Amino acid sequence: DIIWHGDFQPIIDVQKQSIAVRFNALRLRYDGIEERATNINLFFLNEGKFSEVYIYMSDENPLR
Predict the structure, then answer these.
(1) Residue of 18, 22, 19 lying closest to 8 (CA atoms)
(2) Model's pTM, two decimal places?
(3) What total of structural domains would you count in the chain?
């Protein structure tokens, strides 16, 4: 499979030390099927370092 990620839209909250990133994903499967998804990643920081990361995917996880 080929997977493309793009159209990133970040929201950064400096006071709460958090970042949200919305983006689109396109998966071209080997069987010719095209799958599209809109995903969100949430990052929380503690003293400038990542402390938590959450990944929300609107489609199936292709890494399984």
Answers:
(1) 22
(2) 0.82
(3) 1
